[in-house]
Design brief:
About 0% of the residues lie in helices and about 35% in strands. The protein is mainly beta. Strand 7 (about 100-105) and strand 8 form a beta hairpin. It is globular. Bound molecules: zinc ion. Zinc ion binds next to loops.
């Protein structure tokens, strides 16, 4: 089960060109210098693009839930650090997904975000650079 502590994704930032990567990598994918340092990524972001998985993925690796497969959303979450994380997106309705504010709920086996319905959106969804 998940830990009771807050979940967070570990990425890396290049100390030369500031490129942020996920998952964390010692080697920068932009300037190819081995100078990246690990950082903790923001847990809130904005859903940048998504699709609906309407059929059960191949198993393994997919493990269907106890009640059987139900369609779910998969998308890219844009974080304030300026990167996009591929993740499963939990939501009440697929109609609410376009540009939705989301928050991280789980990191394993893949990142998982949920639409933030509490009205506590981040102050800015832009890239702070
Ligand atoms: Zn770099």
């Amino acid at each position: 089960m998940e830990q009771a502590t807050a979940v967070a994704l570990e990425g890396s930032r290049c100390t030369v060109c500031s490129t942020v990567a996920f998952p964390a990598s010692a080697m920068c994918s932009r300037c190819a210098t081995p100078s990246a340092e690990n950082i903790t990524l923001s847990t809130r972001g904005t859903l940048w693009a998504y699709t609906i998985q309407r059929f059960a993925p191949k198993s393994p690796p997919y493990v269907p839930p106890a009640g059987g497969f139900v369609p779910f959303a998969v998308g890219y979450v844009e974080l304030p650090e300026g990167i996009k994380i591929e993740a499963i997106i939990d939501c009440e309705s697929f109609d609410e997904l376009d540009g939705a504010p989301v928050r991280l709920t789980s990191t394993a086996p893949v990142p998982r975000f949920a639409v933030d319905t509490l009205g506590t959106q981040p102050e800015s969804t832009g890239i702070a650079q």
